[in-house]
Amino acid sequence: MKIKGSKTGWLPMKRNWGQKWEISQQLIGQSLSFQVQTSDGKWVQSDNVAPANWQFGQTFEAKNNF
């Protein structure tokens, strides 16, 4: 899994436990995009999933499926 803030490039995330992922970079105040690698090695990209004013604990839904 990778994450991209509106002011950063793509950054790899680290699996913490189960479906929980983390990153040490501060991305507060940035809109967030994600890339997920499928089991066949393809990357699925979801742009601007969370707006710049996101808050911890919120959930968002991307427009693409995989």
**Could you list the spans in which at least 5 consecutive residues all have pLDDT below 50?**
none
Helix proportion: under 10%
Spatial shape: globular
Radius of gyration: 12 Å
Specify the number of helices: 0
Give the N-terminus to C-terminus distance in angstroms. 14 Å
Largest sheet: number of strands, sense, barrel closure: 4 strands, antiparallel
What features would you describe in this structure?
The chain is mainly β and 66 residues long. It has one domain. The protein is built from no helices and six strands. The protein has strands at 2-5, 10-12, 14-17, 20-22, 32-37, 43-50. The strands form two sheets. Strands 2-1-5-6 form a four-stranded antiparallel beta sheet, with no helix packed on it. A two-stranded antiparallel sheet has the order 3-4. It is globular, with a radius of gyration of 12 Å. It is a peripheral membrane protein.
What are the SSEs and their pairings?
Elements: E1 2-5, E2 10-12, E3 14-17, E4 20-22, E5 32-37, E6 43-50
Antiparallel strand pairs: 1-2, 1-5, 3-4, 5-6
Give a quick precis of the structure.
By secondary structure, this protein is mainly β. The protein is built from no helices and 6 strands.
